[in-house]
Amino acid sequence: MKSITIAGGGLAGLTLGIGLRQRGVPAALWEAGHYPRHRVCGEFICGRGQETLTRLGLRDLLERAGAVDADTAAFFSATQSTGPRPLPSRAICLSRFILDATLAEKFRELGGELRVGQRWPAVGVHASACPDRRELQPEGVVRATGRRLQTEEDGARWFGLKAHVSNVPLTADLEMHVSPRGYVGLCRVNGGRVNVCGLFRRRAGESIGSQNRRELLRGPIGSPLHQRLASAEFDENSFCAVAGLSLRPYRAVARADCCIGDAITMIPPVTGNGMSMAFESAELASEPLVAWSRGEISWAETQSQIARRCDGAFARRLAWAKWLQRFVLTPSLQNMLVMFAARSDWSWRMAFEKTR
Ligand SMILES: Cc1cc2nc3c(=O)[nH]c(=O)nc-3n(C[C@H](O)[C@H](O)[C@H](O)COP(=O)(O)OP(=O)(O)OC[C@H]3O[C@@H](n4cnc5c(N)ncnc54)[C@H](O)[C@@H]3O)c2cc1C
Questions:
Q1: What is the best residue among 201, 275, 277, 352 to mutate for testing ligand 1's pocket, by most ligand atoms within 8 Å of CB?
Q2: For ligand 1, atom 48: residue with the closest CA
Q3: Which of the listed residues 39, 102, 118, 145 should we mutate to test ligand 1's pocket, taking the one with most ligand atoms within 8 A of CB?
Q4: pLDDT of residue 332
Q5: How far apart are CA 150 and CA 166, in angstroms?
Q6: Which among 6, 17, 46, 317 is placed 20 to 30 Å from 85, CA to CA?
Protein backbone atom coordinates (compact mmCIF):
# COMPACT_ATOMS: atom_id res chain seq x y z
CA MET A 1 0.00 0.00 0.00
CA LYS A 2 1.20 3.53 -0.77
CA SER A 3 1.84 5.80 2.21
CA ILE A 4 -0.13 8.99 3.00
CA THR A 5 1.61 12.11 4.34
CA ILE A 6 -0.50 14.39 6.53
CA ALA A 7 0.71 17.98 6.97
CA GLY A 8 -0.66 19.30 10.30
CA GLY A 9 -1.37 17.38 13.49
CA GLY A 10 -4.42 19.24 14.81
CA LEU A 11 -7.80 17.53 15.08
CA ALA A 12 -8.35 16.95 11.36
CA GLY A 13 -4.86 15.56 10.73
CA LEU A 14 -4.80 13.33 13.80
CA THR A 15 -8.31 11.98 13.16
CA LEU A 16 -7.37 11.19 9.58
CA GLY A 17 -4.13 9.53 10.70
CA ILE A 18 -6.03 7.36 13.19
CA GLY A 19 -8.68 6.40 10.62
CA LEU A 20 -6.03 5.43 8.06
CA ARG A 21 -3.98 3.42 10.52
CA GLN A 22 -7.12 1.56 11.63
CA ARG A 23 -7.50 0.51 7.98
CA GLY A 24 -3.88 -0.54 7.67
CA VAL A 25 -2.71 2.40 5.55
CA PRO A 26 0.87 3.59 6.23
CA ALA A 27 0.67 7.23 7.41
CA ALA A 28 3.26 9.86 8.39
CA LEU A 29 2.09 13.03 10.10
CA TRP A 30 4.14 16.25 10.27
CA GLU A 31 3.24 18.63 13.10
CA ALA A 32 5.00 21.99 13.33
CA GLY A 33 4.21 22.38 17.05
CA HIS A 34 4.30 19.95 19.96
CA TYR A 35 1.96 18.11 22.38
CA PRO A 36 0.46 18.94 24.77
CA ARG A 37 -0.19 22.61 24.20
CA HIS A 38 -3.03 25.04 24.76
CA ARG A 39 -4.93 26.18 21.66
CA VAL A 40 -7.39 29.01 21.12
CA CYS A 41 -10.66 27.10 21.06
CA GLY A 42 -13.99 27.10 22.91
CA GLU A 43 -13.36 23.36 23.53
CA PHE A 44 -17.07 22.69 23.01
CA ILE A 45 -17.58 19.69 20.69
CA CYS A 46 -21.05 19.39 19.22
CA GLY A 47 -22.70 18.11 16.08
CA ARG A 48 -22.13 15.18 13.76
CA GLY A 49 -18.41 14.96 14.44
CA GLN A 50 -19.29 13.16 17.67
CA GLU A 51 -20.64 10.30 15.55
CA THR A 52 -17.29 10.19 13.73
CA LEU A 53 -15.56 9.92 17.10
CA THR A 54 -17.86 7.05 18.08
CA ARG A 55 -17.31 5.21 14.77
CA LEU A 56 -13.53 5.52 15.18
CA GLY A 57 -13.79 4.26 18.77
CA LEU A 58 -12.46 7.58 20.09
CA ARG A 59 -15.48 8.78 22.07
CA ASP A 60 -14.75 6.44 25.01
CA LEU A 61 -11.10 7.42 24.88
CA LEU A 62 -12.02 11.10 25.26
CA GLU A 63 -14.43 10.32 28.07
CA ARG A 64 -11.65 8.48 29.89
CA ALA A 65 -9.41 11.51 29.27
CA GLY A 66 -11.90 13.66 31.21
CA ALA A 67 -14.41 15.00 28.65
CA VAL A 68 -17.41 16.63 30.36
CA ASP A 69 -21.00 16.39 29.03
CA ALA A 70 -22.84 19.62 28.19
CA ASP A 71 -26.66 19.60 28.08
CA THR A 72 -27.70 23.22 28.56
CA ALA A 73 -26.87 26.66 27.14
CA ALA A 74 -27.70 30.25 28.08
CA PHE A 75 -27.30 33.46 26.06
CA PHE A 76 -26.52 36.94 27.32
CA SER A 77 -26.32 40.43 25.83
CA ALA A 78 -25.70 43.62 27.80
CA THR A 79 -29.32 43.74 28.99
CA GLN A 80 -31.02 40.44 28.04
CA SER A 81 -30.55 36.80 28.95
CA THR A 82 -32.28 33.55 28.11
CA GLY A 83 -31.74 31.50 31.23
CA PRO A 84 -30.60 27.88 30.78
CA ARG A 85 -32.10 26.08 27.73
CA PRO A 86 -31.65 22.40 26.88
CA LEU A 87 -29.21 21.85 24.00
CA PRO A 88 -30.99 20.14 21.07
CA SER A 89 -28.25 17.48 21.25
CA ARG A 90 -25.61 16.72 23.84
CA ALA A 91 -22.10 18.17 23.47
CA ILE A 92 -18.82 17.25 25.12
CA CYS A 93 -16.14 19.61 26.38
CA LEU A 94 -12.47 18.76 26.70
CA SER A 95 -9.37 20.94 26.88
CA ARG A 96 -7.35 20.95 23.65
CA PHE A 97 -4.29 20.50 25.86
CA ILE A 98 -5.57 16.97 26.55
CA LEU A 99 -7.60 16.32 23.40
CA ASP A 100 -4.82 16.82 20.83
CA ALA A 101 -2.25 14.97 22.95
CA THR A 102 -4.64 12.02 23.47
CA LEU A 103 -5.27 11.69 19.73
CA ALA A 104 -1.53 12.02 18.97
CA GLU A 105 -0.80 9.21 21.40
CA LYS A 106 -3.50 7.04 19.80
CA PHE A 107 -2.05 7.66 16.33
CA ARG A 108 1.38 6.59 17.58
CA GLU A 109 -0.06 3.50 19.29
CA LEU A 110 -1.62 2.47 15.98
CA GLY A 111 1.78 2.57 14.32
CA GLY A 112 1.55 6.03 12.73
CA GLU A 113 4.78 7.95 12.18
CA LEU A 114 4.51 11.23 14.10
CA ARG A 115 7.08 13.91 13.26
CA VAL A 116 6.62 16.47 16.01
CA GLY A 117 8.25 19.91 15.64
CA GLN A 118 8.57 19.46 11.87
CA ARG A 119 6.91 21.85 9.44
CA TRP A 120 5.70 20.55 6.08
CA PRO A 121 7.10 22.95 3.50
CA ALA A 122 4.29 23.14 0.90
CA VAL A 123 2.33 26.34 0.49
CA GLY A 124 -1.37 26.21 -0.38
CA VAL A 125 -2.84 28.57 -2.97
CA HIS A 126 -6.10 28.96 -4.79
CA ALA A 127 -6.67 26.43 -7.59
CA SER A 128 -7.03 29.10 -10.27
CA ALA A 129 -3.48 30.35 -9.54
CA CYS A 130 -1.97 27.03 -10.55
CA PRO A 131 -3.68 24.90 -13.19
CA ASP A 132 -1.24 22.01 -12.69
CA ARG A 133 -2.00 20.73 -9.20
CA ARG A 134 1.07 18.44 -9.15
CA GLU A 135 3.30 21.51 -8.89
CA LEU A 136 1.75 22.42 -5.55
CA GLN A 137 1.75 19.18 -3.65
CA PRO A 138 3.12 15.80 -4.47
CA GLU A 139 0.68 12.89 -4.63
CA GLY A 140 -0.34 11.36 -1.32
CA VAL A 141 -0.10 14.59 0.71
CA VAL A 142 -3.12 15.85 2.64
CA ARG A 143 -3.06 19.37 4.00
CA ALA A 144 -4.54 19.62 7.52
CA THR A 145 -2.61 22.73 8.50
CA GLY A 146 -5.55 24.64 9.97
CA ARG A 147 -6.88 28.10 9.23
CA ARG A 148 -5.31 30.28 6.54
CA LEU A 149 -4.01 33.66 7.52
CA GLN A 150 -6.23 36.61 6.59
CA THR A 151 -4.89 39.97 7.71
CA GLU A 152 -8.03 42.00 7.12
CA GLU A 153 -11.63 41.28 6.16
CA ASP A 154 -14.18 44.02 5.41
CA GLY A 155 -11.98 46.60 7.19
CA ALA A 156 -11.79 44.54 10.40
CA ARG A 157 -9.24 42.17 11.87
CA TRP A 158 -10.44 39.18 13.81
CA PHE A 159 -8.59 37.62 16.69
CA GLY A 160 -9.33 34.97 19.30
CA LEU A 161 -8.34 34.67 22.97
CA LYS A 162 -8.61 31.70 25.31
CA ALA A 163 -7.88 31.05 28.98
CA HIS A 164 -8.86 28.50 31.58
CA VAL A 165 -10.22 29.87 34.82
CA SER A 166 -11.40 28.45 38.13
CA ASN A 167 -13.84 29.72 40.73
CA VAL A 168 -16.55 30.56 38.20
CA PRO A 169 -20.10 29.32 38.82
CA LEU A 170 -21.98 28.93 35.50
CA THR A 171 -25.76 29.08 35.05
CA ALA A 172 -25.61 26.58 32.15
CA ASP A 173 -23.03 24.14 30.73
CA LEU A 174 -22.39 26.67 27.95
CA GLU A 175 -22.84 30.42 28.37
CA MET A 176 -22.56 32.65 25.32
CA HIS A 177 -22.08 36.39 25.94
CA VAL A 178 -22.30 38.86 23.05
CA SER A 179 -21.01 42.43 23.08
CA PRO A 180 -20.33 45.10 20.41
CA ARG A 181 -16.69 43.94 20.37
CA GLY A 182 -17.44 40.26 19.67
CA TYR A 183 -18.51 37.30 21.78
CA VAL A 184 -17.20 35.15 24.61
CA GLY A 185 -18.21 31.58 25.38
CA LEU A 186 -17.82 29.91 28.76
CA CYS A 187 -18.04 26.17 29.24
CA ARG A 188 -17.02 23.64 31.83
CA VAL A 189 -14.07 21.51 30.83
CA ASN A 190 -12.13 18.70 32.53
CA GLY A 191 -10.67 19.29 35.98
CA GLY A 192 -13.51 21.56 37.18
CA ARG A 193 -12.19 24.45 35.14
CA VAL A 194 -14.05 26.79 32.83
CA ASN A 195 -12.90 27.59 29.31
CA VAL A 196 -13.24 31.31 28.53
CA CYS A 197 -12.84 31.87 24.81
CA GLY A 198 -13.70 34.89 22.72
CA LEU A 199 -13.67 36.16 19.17
CA PHE A 200 -13.06 39.89 18.83
CA ARG A 201 -13.01 42.51 16.12
CA ARG A 202 -10.23 45.06 15.91
CA ARG A 203 -10.19 48.06 13.61
CA ALA A 204 -7.18 48.30 11.28
CA GLY A 205 -4.28 50.05 13.08
CA GLU A 206 -5.76 49.56 16.58
CA SER A 207 -3.43 47.66 18.93
CA ILE A 208 -4.46 45.44 21.83
CA GLY A 209 -1.92 45.40 24.66
CA SER A 210 -1.31 42.15 26.49
CA GLN A 211 -2.81 43.70 29.67
CA ASN A 212 -6.03 44.39 27.79
CA ARG A 213 -6.45 40.78 26.72
CA ARG A 214 -7.70 39.68 30.10
CA GLU A 215 -10.05 42.68 30.24
CA LEU A 216 -11.44 41.78 26.83
CA LEU A 217 -12.21 38.27 28.03
CA ARG A 218 -13.84 39.69 31.17
CA GLY A 219 -16.21 41.85 29.10
CA PRO A 220 -17.42 45.42 29.63
CA ILE A 221 -17.75 46.52 33.27
CA GLY A 222 -21.31 45.98 34.46
CA SER A 223 -22.04 43.29 31.84
CA PRO A 224 -23.30 39.82 32.89
CA LEU A 225 -19.95 38.42 31.66
CA HIS A 226 -17.97 40.77 33.86
CA GLN A 227 -20.11 39.78 36.84
CA ARG A 228 -19.70 36.07 36.06
CA LEU A 229 -15.90 36.38 36.00
CA ALA A 230 -15.71 38.71 39.03
CA SER A 231 -13.82 36.21 41.19
CA ALA A 232 -12.28 34.14 38.37
CA GLU A 233 -8.74 32.89 38.90
CA PHE A 234 -6.95 32.80 35.56
CA ASP A 235 -4.46 30.04 34.76
CA GLU A 236 -1.75 32.17 33.15
CA ASN A 237 -0.18 29.15 31.40
CA SER A 238 -3.39 28.46 29.53
CA PHE A 239 -3.63 31.97 28.05
CA CYS A 240 -3.32 31.96 24.25
CA ALA A 241 -4.20 34.20 21.34
CA VAL A 242 -4.59 33.85 17.60
CA ALA A 243 -4.95 36.56 14.96
CA GLY A 244 -5.52 36.79 11.23
CA LEU A 245 -8.76 34.79 11.27
CA SER A 246 -10.94 34.59 8.18
CA LEU A 247 -14.66 34.13 8.64
CA ARG A 248 -15.49 33.88 4.97
CA PRO A 249 -16.58 30.45 3.70
CA TYR A 250 -14.48 28.71 1.02
CA ARG A 251 -15.23 25.58 -0.97
CA ALA A 252 -12.92 22.59 -0.99
CA VAL A 253 -13.07 22.29 -4.80
CA ALA A 254 -11.58 25.79 -5.04
CA ARG A 255 -8.47 24.67 -3.15
CA ALA A 256 -5.52 23.61 -5.27
CA ASP A 257 -4.29 21.06 -2.73
CA CYS A 258 -5.99 18.17 -1.00
CA CYS A 259 -7.38 19.68 2.23
CA ILE A 260 -9.36 18.76 5.32
CA GLY A 261 -10.50 20.71 8.41
CA ASP A 262 -9.86 24.44 8.71
CA ALA A 263 -7.43 24.20 5.80
CA ILE A 264 -10.55 24.07 3.62
CA THR A 265 -12.41 26.79 5.49
CA MET A 266 -13.13 27.90 9.04
CA ILE A 267 -16.76 27.91 10.13
CA PRO A 268 -17.51 30.94 12.36
CA PRO A 269 -16.65 29.93 15.94
CA VAL A 270 -20.08 31.09 17.17
CA THR A 271 -21.44 27.78 15.87
CA GLY A 272 -19.01 25.71 17.96
CA ASN A 273 -18.80 23.34 15.00
CA GLY A 274 -15.21 23.72 13.71
CA MET A 275 -13.87 20.71 15.61
CA SER A 276 -16.80 18.65 14.38
CA MET A 277 -15.99 19.63 10.80
CA ALA A 278 -12.37 18.66 11.38
CA PHE A 279 -13.43 15.16 12.55
CA GLU A 280 -16.05 14.78 9.81
CA SER A 281 -13.78 15.93 6.97
CA ALA A 282 -11.12 13.46 8.12
CA GLU A 283 -13.67 10.66 7.98
CA LEU A 284 -14.96 11.80 4.57
CA ALA A 285 -11.39 11.76 3.23
CA SER A 286 -10.52 8.29 4.50
CA GLU A 287 -12.28 6.12 1.93
CA PRO A 288 -10.84 7.84 -1.19
CA LEU A 289 -7.38 7.84 0.43
CA VAL A 290 -7.58 4.13 1.20
CA ALA A 291 -8.57 3.51 -2.43
CA TRP A 292 -5.59 5.61 -3.64
CA SER A 293 -3.25 3.81 -1.26
CA ARG A 294 -4.37 0.48 -2.76
CA GLY A 295 -3.77 1.83 -6.27
CA GLU A 296 -7.48 1.71 -7.17
CA ILE A 297 -7.90 5.39 -8.14
CA SER A 298 -5.62 8.21 -9.31
CA TRP A 299 -4.53 11.07 -7.04
CA ALA A 300 -6.58 13.56 -9.10
CA GLU A 301 -9.69 11.44 -8.56
CA THR A 302 -8.91 11.06 -4.85
CA GLN A 303 -8.55 14.79 -4.39
CA SER A 304 -11.68 15.51 -6.36
CA GLN A 305 -13.74 12.94 -4.39
CA ILE A 306 -12.59 14.37 -1.06
CA ALA A 307 -13.38 17.95 -2.12
CA ARG A 308 -16.85 17.00 -3.40
CA ARG A 309 -17.66 15.00 -0.27
CA CYS A 310 -16.61 17.87 2.00
CA ASP A 311 -18.46 20.54 0.02
CA GLY A 312 -21.56 18.32 -0.05
CA ALA A 313 -21.45 17.88 3.72
CA PHE A 314 -20.61 21.47 4.71
CA ALA A 315 -21.93 23.98 2.13
CA ARG A 316 -25.37 24.53 3.72
CA ARG A 317 -23.97 24.63 7.22
CA LEU A 318 -21.42 27.26 6.20
CA ALA A 319 -24.05 29.40 4.51
CA TRP A 320 -26.24 29.42 7.63
CA ALA A 321 -23.24 30.04 9.87
CA LYS A 322 -22.24 33.08 7.85
CA TRP A 323 -25.63 34.70 8.47
CA LEU A 324 -25.75 33.68 12.11
CA GLN A 325 -22.32 35.18 12.67
CA ARG A 326 -23.34 38.40 10.93
CA PHE A 327 -26.47 38.77 13.10
CA VAL A 328 -24.64 37.96 16.33
CA LEU A 329 -21.95 40.56 15.59
CA THR A 330 -24.34 43.36 14.69
CA PRO A 331 -24.55 45.40 17.93
CA SER A 332 -28.03 46.79 17.16
CA LEU A 333 -29.42 43.24 16.82
CA GLN A 334 -27.80 41.61 19.84
CA ASN A 335 -30.46 42.39 22.46
CA MET A 336 -33.21 41.42 20.06
CA LEU A 337 -31.53 38.11 19.18
CA VAL A 338 -31.15 37.09 22.82
CA MET A 339 -34.75 38.14 23.54
CA PHE A 340 -35.90 36.10 20.56
CA ALA A 341 -33.92 33.05 21.69
CA ALA A 342 -35.49 33.41 25.16
CA ARG A 343 -39.03 33.48 23.79
CA SER A 344 -38.87 31.21 20.79
CA ASP A 345 -37.62 27.71 21.36
CA TRP A 346 -38.13 27.01 17.66
CA SER A 347 -35.78 29.78 16.42
CA TRP A 348 -32.94 28.75 18.70
CA ARG A 349 -33.32 25.06 17.83
CA MET A 350 -33.39 25.92 14.14
CA ALA A 351 -30.19 28.05 14.36
CA PHE A 352 -28.50 25.20 16.25
CA GLU A 353 -29.56 22.46 13.85
CA LYS A 354 -28.90 24.38 10.61
CA THR A 355 -25.29 25.06 11.61
CA ARG A 356 -24.52 21.43 12.42
C1 LIG B 1 -11.91 31.81 18.95
C2 LIG B 1 -12.21 30.41 18.46
C3 LIG B 1 -13.07 29.60 19.19
C4 LIG B 1 -13.39 28.32 18.73
N5 LIG B 1 -14.25 27.55 19.47
C6 LIG B 1 -14.62 26.34 19.00
C7 LIG B 1 -15.53 25.53 19.73
O8 LIG B 1 -15.96 25.83 20.86
N9 LIG B 1 -15.94 24.35 19.16
C10 LIG B 1 -15.48 23.94 17.94
O11 LIG B 1 -15.90 22.87 17.49
N12 LIG B 1 -14.58 24.67 17.26
C13 LIG B 1 -14.15 25.85 17.74
N14 LIG B 1 -13.23 26.59 17.05
C15 LIG B 1 -12.70 26.06 15.77
C16 LIG B 1 -11.70 24.92 15.99
O17 LIG B 1 -10.70 25.29 16.90
C18 LIG B 1 -11.08 24.56 14.64
O19 LIG B 1 -12.09 24.45 13.68
C20 LIG B 1 -10.30 23.25 14.70
O21 LIG B 1 -9.21 23.37 15.57
C22 LIG B 1 -9.81 22.88 13.31
O23 LIG B 1 -8.96 21.76 13.37
P24 LIG B 1 -7.81 21.57 12.28
O25 LIG B 1 -7.14 20.31 12.60
O26 LIG B 1 -8.35 21.81 10.93
O27 LIG B 1 -6.80 22.79 12.55
P28 LIG B 1 -5.89 23.02 13.83
O29 LIG B 1 -6.49 22.44 15.04
O30 LIG B 1 -5.58 24.49 13.82
O31 LIG B 1 -4.57 22.21 13.52
C32 LIG B 1 -3.68 22.56 12.49
C33 LIG B 1 -2.31 22.03 12.90
O34 LIG B 1 -1.42 22.13 11.81
C35 LIG B 1 -0.14 22.52 12.28
N36 LIG B 1 0.55 23.12 11.14
C37 LIG B 1 0.27 24.28 10.51
N38 LIG B 1 1.08 24.43 9.44
C39 LIG B 1 1.89 23.33 9.40
C40 LIG B 1 2.90 22.89 8.51
N41 LIG B 1 3.26 23.60 7.45
N42 LIG B 1 3.53 21.71 8.78
C43 LIG B 1 3.18 20.96 9.85
N44 LIG B 1 2.21 21.33 10.72
C45 LIG B 1 1.56 22.50 10.49
C46 LIG B 1 -0.44 23.47 13.42
O47 LIG B 1 0.64 23.55 14.32
C48 LIG B 1 -1.67 22.81 14.04
O49 LIG B 1 -1.34 21.92 15.07
C50 LIG B 1 -12.85 27.86 17.51
C51 LIG B 1 -11.95 28.66 16.79
C52 LIG B 1 -11.63 29.92 17.27
C53 LIG B 1 -10.67 30.77 16.48
A1: 275
A2: 10
A3: 145
A4: 87
A5: 33
A6: 317
- Residue 350 CA to residue 320 CA, distance in Å, equals 10
pLDDT of residue 350: 83
Is-contact 38 45, C-beta < 8 A? no
Average pLDDT over residues 64-86: 93
Nearest CA to ligand 1 atom 21: 275
Residue 209: pLDDT band by 50, 70, 90 thresholds?
low
pLDDT digits (tens, 9 = 90+) for 39-59: 999 999 999 999 999 999 999
As a whole number of angstroms, the distance between CA 13 and CA 112 comes to 12
Number of separate helices (H) and strands (E) present in the chain: 10, 12
- The 3-state DSSP composition of the chain as helix, strand, coil percent (nearest 5) reads 40, 25, 35
The pLDDT assigned to 287 comes to 98
Specify the residue with its C-alpha closest to ligand 1, atom 29: 10
- Residue 211: pLDDT band with limits 50, 70, 90: low
- pLDDT value for 207: 67
* 215-261 per-position pLDDT tens digit: 899 998 999 999 999 999 999 999 999 988 888 899 999 999 999 99
CB atoms within 10 A of CB 191: 13
Q: Are 331 and 183 contacting, i.e. CB atoms less than 8 angstroms apart? A: no
73 Cβ inside 6 Å of ligand 1: no
Task: Report the residue count for the chain.
Answer: 356
- Cβ contacts of 137 within 8 Å, gap of 6 or more: 122, 124, 143, 256, 257, 258
Strand order in the sheet with 182-188: 44-45, 85-93, 68-76, 174-179, 182-188, 194-203, 156-166, 233-243
pLDDT of residue 125: 46
182 in ligand 1 pocket by Cβ < 6 Å?
no
Give the containing element (helix H, strand E) for 29: strand 27-31
| pLDDT of 126 | 47
